[in-house]
Write a structure and sequence with these properties.
This protein is of the alpha+beta class and 181 residues long. The protein folds into two domains: 65 residues; 98 residues, Ribosomal protein S6/Translation elongation factor EF1B (Alpha-Beta Plaits, 2-Layer Sandwich), CATH 3.30.70.60. It has three helices and five strands. Strands 1, 2, 3, 4 and 5 form a five-stranded antiparallel β-sheet that branches. A hairpin with a 3-residue loop joins strand 2 and strand 3. Helix 2 packs antiparallel against helix 3. The protein is elongated.
């Protein structure tokens, strides 16, 4: 192809097409690998940053785990000991606050892979405020477990034709049973 015979318009079109092809070639050969290496470098720097802060995060998570275990009542105490202490504390509180501890069917336990959940059910009769105080006392002051559910129900006594407030308090303890490997 003889370039001297081409017009300036054709020469400019060929120059523009060659320039565009050169730009595409430069992008795929030089710019794209540089961008890929830059993003890899950024990812590696982030991983390095995480690795440097890992010991402090591990300590923080261990302390949080210990606080959760103590808060949920984990340990090796026997269910009967916890149940007896629960009945004792609940009956003392009910006696001093004009509440009636109607029923305690006992503790039920459900085991999972590395923990077990012990659930205690208390049925109490009294005032709304008194029952709430009992729930607060058992959960936060005596730390006998977490309140999983608190169900209030107005019940009418057919003989006396009086309505009383009853509540079912579900108190749960989560206990670690297995050891992590």
């Amino acid at each position: 192809m003889n370039l001297d015979k081409l017009t300036y318009h054709k020469k400019n079109q060929l120059l523009l097409a060659g320039g565009l092809m050169a730009l595409v070639l430069i992008y795929f050969v030089a710019i794209q690998p540089t961008i890929d290496l830059s993003s890899k470098n950024q990812n590696l720097e982030n991983q390095l940053q995480l690795a440097q802060t890992a010991p402090s995060e591990i300590k923080m998570l261990e302390s949080r785990s210990k606080s959760w275990e103590s808060g949920f009542g984990s340990g090796v105490s026997a269910p009967s000991k916890t149940s007896n202490h629960l009945i004792e504390e609940a009956s003392k509180f009910c006696e001093s606050n004009n509440l009636l501890l109607k029923n305690y069917p006992g503790a039920t336990s459900e085991s999972h892979k590395d923990f077990s959940i012990e659930t205690n059910l208390l049925k109490v009769e009294g005032t709304y405020k008194g029952i709430l105080k009992l729930a607060y006392y058992l959960e936060f002051q005596e730390r006998l477990g977490r309140i999983a559910s608190l169900k209030f129900e107005a019940v009418e006594n057919r003989r006396t034709r009086k309505t009383s407030l009853e509540a079912e308090i579900f108190l749960q303890n989560i206990k670690k049973t297995g050891h992590e490997i």
